[in-house]
Amino acid sequence: MRAKIYIGMAILFLLVRFKKIRGLPLEEITSRLAMVEKLSRDLARYLEEERQLYARLKGALEAGVEAWEHTGKDRRGIREEVLRAYRQGLSTEEIARKFSLSEGEVELLLSLERFKGQA
Fold first, then answer.
1. In sequence order, which residues have a C-beta less than 8 Å from that of residue 3 and are 6 or more positions away?
2. Which pTM value belongs to this model?
3. Mean pLDDT, contiguous 10-residue spans, the chain (119 residues)
4. What is the DSSP letter of 24?
């Protein structure tokens, strides 16, 4: 989709510039055409890099989703273990270290449990 937009913009640019080119010397026209050719190659390279980046990001996201879905059953167990450890008096830092979580994740689980208790 981006390629079509860029190509359309390039064609429009060329049509506008064509009116100004009619009176130019042949060397100037050749120079400008060479510049357009270089820009076209640069654009093609940029679009290919974007396509490759998109493919890598898509693959990473798919892998992340797969991993998340795979561990979905384990998440409930971890939540219960975190709550149990908190009730036993462990600090958020100790709980995070014990279950390989960040302190923010532990605090989030604990605050969600507190919120459920208030509802």
1. 47
2. 0.40
3. 70 67 73 86 93 88 67 70 92 90 88 73
4. S
Find, among 88, 89, 90, 82, the residue nearest to 111 by Cα: 82
Give the separation between CA 47 and CA 51, rounded to whole angstroms.
6
How far is it, in rounded angstroms, from Cα 104 to Cα 110?
10
| Chain CA centroid to CA 15, Å | 36
- Residue 88: strand, helix, or coil: coil
Instruction: Give Cα separations from 24 to 15, 29, 32, 53 (angstroms).
Output: 15, 7, 10, 41
Q: Are 95 and 101 in contact (CB under 8 A)?
A: yes
Placement of tokens 């709550």 in the chain? 83
